[in-house]
């Protein structure tokens, strides 16, 4: 997507089936056959997911997640890595499973939730109570832009948002730098450098 970006580009991430993303493959980690092997596989997934979050935060275009099913654990983090989220109200939840599974959070997950979810109570309930939040509540708390009754409506709303933003034909590099400036703690943990870009019109 970055290589193909031009002024007027936007990214919409969609999925099919029950899940937007169910997060890391814990079954694969457990199939290692030992506690040490499982921990190594889990660390591996944490490390290879990190550049995906970094890529979304530095992508030179607006990004929209069309959450048409469950977004759990790393899948929820994936959705939060986008600029805008649209969600179904009739099916699917936002859920951080770590406290229920007995897993701690990677540091960049903690920073992502801290800087993307401004309401402390919502953040606390996701991370410390294993809250499963449906679309209406997520919209009410400002975590998603809007919730809709069907998969098609979510996709259509996501595309409308992307098209509206793309029409502005912003400088993608400037857009990415401004986005990164909103999340300084997260960008530091992801190793994302920032730079000043001066407009030629100034």
Overview of the structural elements:
With 202 residues, this protein is α/β, with parallel strands linked by helices. It has a single domain, classed as 2-enoyl-CoA Hydratase, Chain A, domain 1 (Alpha-Beta Complex). The chain is built from 10 helices and 8 strands. The protein has helices at 26-30, 35-58, 74-80, 98-101, 107-116, 120-129, 135-140, 151-166, 172-182, 184-190; strands spanning 11-13, 19-21, 63-67, 70-72, 84-88, 94-95, 132-133, 146-148. The longest helix is centred in the first third of the chain and has 24 residues, at 35-58. The two termini are 29 Å apart. The mean pLDDT is 95.
* CATH architectural designation: Alpha-Beta Complex
Instruction: Give helix % range.
Output: 40-55%
User: Mind telling me the C-alpha Rg?
Assistant: 17 Å
Give, in spatial order, the strands making up the sheet with the most strands.
1-3-5-8
**Molecular shape:** globular
Class in CATH?
Alpha Beta
Compute the separation of the termini in Å.
Answer: 29 Å
User: Helix/strand/pairing class, anyone?
Assistant: alpha/beta
* Total number of helices: 10
Provide a brief overview of the structure.
The chain is an alpha/beta fold and 202 residues long. Helices cover 50% and strands 13% of the residues. It contains ten helices and eight strands.
